[in-house]
Amino acid sequence: MTWLVTGGAGYIGAHVVRALTGAGERVVVLDDLSTGLPDRLPPGVPLVRGAVSDRSLLEETIAGHGVTGVVHLAARKQVGESVERPLTYYRENVHGLTVLLEAVVAAGVRRFLFSSSAAVYGMPDVDLVTEDTPCTPLNPYGETKLAGEWLVRAAGRAHGLATACLRYFNVAGAARPELADTGVSNVIPMFFGALTRGEAPRIFGDDYPTPDGTCVRDYVHVADLADAHLAAARRLAELPPGEDLTVNVGTGRGVSVRELADLVAEVTGIREPAPVVVPRRPGDPAGVVASAERIGRELGWAPRYGVRQMVASAWEGWRLRRPEAAAPGGTGSDG
Ligand SMILES: NC(=O)c1ccc[n+]([C@@H]2O[C@H](COP(=O)([O-])OP(=O)(O)OC[C@H]3O[C@@H](n4cnc5c(N)ncnc54)[C@H](O)[C@@H]3O)[C@@H](O)[C@H]2O)c1
């Protein structure tokens, strides 16, 4: 197999590339480097610089590298930005995917794996979110992921592709510091940012119906997520044409924002200023925790890493890019 990994120079994509190449699969990466970094790629993995909406570049890449399967990660992913710029999000995430699927179908590629998100569920009012929980996304980002799933499954059924949609929950951590997420919009980097600026980390609301009153989420280590891609890629080889496998990638365990803040203080060694509670943000669900039953049953996948390892490895990555953030008494390497 040769896999085309779109967005392979991104945070998650680079981990997926390593999981695939580490297991002996051939990989070519297509990435426009809008947020990706070429030095995240292991030596020997070809990088084609360009957009997934460039049909002729896709045709050249698929034919030139003998691509037999696609892992499609390239997308815009900022929820707030998607509210302000919905047309950009639909163009990049939905139109781009349409062009990619057209090229894939025309070239006779038969395996397609799509990065989806727990954002498709919106505000699920259940203890554990199963793949059958109704999808009611709350913002254009989540809508483009749900529309993406529809497109992938419809194209798969019509054109005989085996497809998989992986709905990632909250992705965190890094397999190596240089592969860490460079974004600052998720809760762990937001806490790091506040603490290293000497500011109090903000907890949005502590009056939710959860054990400690703060929001509960399901965090998955990016290395575990990459392993899930490898398992799904292998499974696609066994799926009959036109079949789809849609699975949550989460651990089934919830961690509250308060617990996370405590862990961040412990790992970084920065305990002051203590977190402050500020009003709830509109649209934040109280708890979103995956049922990990289907992924365990279908792919034999189970997470290897816990949230402490996610925070510790994310902190290593943060410090690599910001050496000035080295904290007195930090215990970031205790994994
Ligand atoms: N990070 C998360 O917590 C999370 C959660 C759920 C789903 N996802 C999904 O996972 C995927 C990867 O996310 P990430 O966190 O690695 O983000 P990222 O921004 O680090 O990676 C995206 C990569 O795609 C590239 N890219 C973007 N648009 C492109 C285009 N039109 N053509 C070619 N390349 C393009 C970027 O340069 C980057 O390398 C996305 O589809 C995202 O929606 C991420």
UniProtKB/TrEMBL annotation:
Domain NAD-dependent epimerase/dehydratase: 3-250
Cofactor(s) named in the record: NAD(+)
Enzyme Commission number, as recorded: 5.1.3.2
Metabolic or biological pathway, per its Swiss-Prot or TrEMBL entry: Carbohydrate metabolism; galactose metabolism
Pfam family, one: Epimerase
Signal peptide per UniProt: none
InterPro entries, alphabetized: Epimerase_deHydtase (IPR001509), NAD(P)-bd_dom_sf (IPR036291), UDP_G4E (IPR005886)
Keywords from the named record: Carbohydrate metabolism, Isomerase, NAD
Reactions the enzyme catalyzes: UDP-alpha-D-glucose = UDP-alpha-D-galactose
Family membership: Belongs to the NAD(P)-dependent epimerase/dehydratase family.
Xref: PANTHER family: UDP-ARABINOSE 4-EPIMERASE 1, UDP-GLUCOSE 4-EPIMERASE
NCBIfam families in alphabetical order: galE
Protein name according to UniProt: UDP-glucose 4-epimerase
